[in-house]
Amino acid sequence: MRVLLINTSERIGGAAIAASRIMEALKNNGIKAKLLVKDKQTDNLSVVGLEQNWWQVWKFVWERIVIWAGNRFHKKNLFSVDIANTGNDITSLPEFRQADVIHLHWINQGMLSLKNLRQILASGKPVVWTMHDMWPCTGICHYARTCDHYETECKDCPYLWESGGKKDLSYRTFRKKKSLYEQADITFITCSEWLRKQAEKSAFITGHTVTNIPNPINTNLFKPRDIAEARKRLELPLDKKLILFGSVKITDERKGMTYLVEACKLLIEKYPHLKEEIGLVVFGQKSSYLEPVLPFPVYSHEFIRDERKIVDIYNAVDLFVTPSLEENLPNMIMEAMACGVPCVGFQTGGIPEMIDHLHNGYVAKYKSTEDFANGIHWLLEEDQAPLREAAHRKVVSCYSENAVAKRYLAIYNRITGKHE
Predict the structure, then answer these.
(1) Which of 17, 129, 149, 18 is CA-nearest to residue 81?
(2) What Rg value do the Cα atoms of the chain yield, rounded?
(3) Is the per-residue pLDDT at 132 higher than 60?
(4) Per-residue pLDDT tens for 263-282?
């Protein structure tokens, strides 16, 4: 069986990493899988990059201009929404023609337009769509937050500045998607149970199959290693308890950095002795921003692409914190836990499905900096050995490549009429 996975980027962003890992998991289980991307970052022969030219760049810019205009020429939320009015016709590519299954992932920001999706569906090839956020089931937003318009009809979008009312960009895109999905046979996959429940509320997902399959991780690479050796390689102190925080861009409002800063300040106010005992390791764009605002040492790294160095970073720390306000199934929690690192996160999205409260980490009350600080303190003071073992065991049992690949293979066989 040949499967063509499609994602905007090969390595940048959680969806890109997840799609790449799914491809590798499928290949390791006998599937001929390739990944088609707009932005290719490696020399992996199984990854096919679309030809880039100025016309492709202009199409992406034009989409942002339309959103900018629809947002009353305000930049706020410019990348929180997508209208999919520009993209690439991939149906003539040999990789598409040879594929038995087309497996969509995150296809925004110029990868595929709604018109391109219609072309793919018209080809008659079975389509699977793994949702890495809510965009496939909403009008234009990646996360609906408290808005429930997508359950009936998108309009008066809260992401648009002084929204244009009942027929704004969200309404027009919603109508196009609804028309597209009505005649389509798409099998939707969500990476978390939380997202499955959100998707099933959508006015235009009704009638389609929605299944929850988590993202996989290579547990032969991401696994517990010697802490002291990892710290030496990264030139981190051996005598401190280290907290880890990371993101592609740590100043992204959705990643909740301000909640982390406030929680750390509360932590030191309550337990002044920790100021000399702990430090924060952070990686991602603008990571140095945290150095002057935290009351203890910060060891910052820019965004890291080398997975082996990332494994070292996880193995060098005592706990991982994710103050994200909106999440599906965060790769970083999975990576940390695979390396035996307990985690702290807010009770939002798929995070409570990953962190078992007081067993392999701490799930804090949503947006409560005080409870987030309590979680950090609890993990710092608790016996680390059973927490680390429980975190690693959870990932091996739930998110291993082999287990996830078999679930996808069962879906591919069903929609193509083939048998295992």
Answers:
(1) 149
(2) 22
(3) yes
(4) 999 999 999 999 999 999 99
Of the candidates 260, 296, 299, the residue with the CA atom closest to the CA atom of residue 277: 296
SS3 assignment for 118-181: HHHHHCCCCEEEEECCCHHHCCCECCCCCCCHHHCCCCCCCCCCCCCHHHCHHHHHHHHHHHHH
**Distance of alpha carbon 345 from alpha carbon 322, whole angstroms:** 5
Place of tokens 């996989």: 216
- Which of 159, 195, 153 is CA-nearest to residue 171? 153
Q: Which residue type sits at 37?
A: V
pLDDT digits (tens, 9 = 90+) for 72-82: 888 888 889 99
Nearest alpha-carbon partner for 379 in 361, 399, 363, 392: 361
CA distances from 282 to 251, 320, 337 (A): 12, 10, 17
Contacts made by residues 226-231, CB under 8 angstroms, sequence distance 24+: 226/315, 227/315, 227/316, 230/312, 230/313, 230/315, 230/316, 231/316
Alpha-helical runs (H) found in 28-123: 54-70, 94-98, 114-122
Kind plus residue range of the DSSP H or E element containing 17: helix 14-27
Candidates 255, 278, 233, 279; CA nearest to 330 is 255
Residue type, 281: V
C-beta of residue 280 within 8 angstroms of C-beta of residue 298: yes
Asked if residues 334 and 354 have their Cβ atoms less than 8 Å apart, the reply is yes
d(Cα 310, Cα 74) in Å, to the nearest integer? 37
- pTM score: 0.90
Count Cβ atoms within 10 A of the Cβ of residue 169 and give its class: 0-12 exposed, 13-18 middle, 19 or more buried.
buried
In the chain, what's the furthest Cα-to-Cα distance? 65
Contacts of 297 (CB under 8 A, 6+ apart): 237, 240, 279, 280
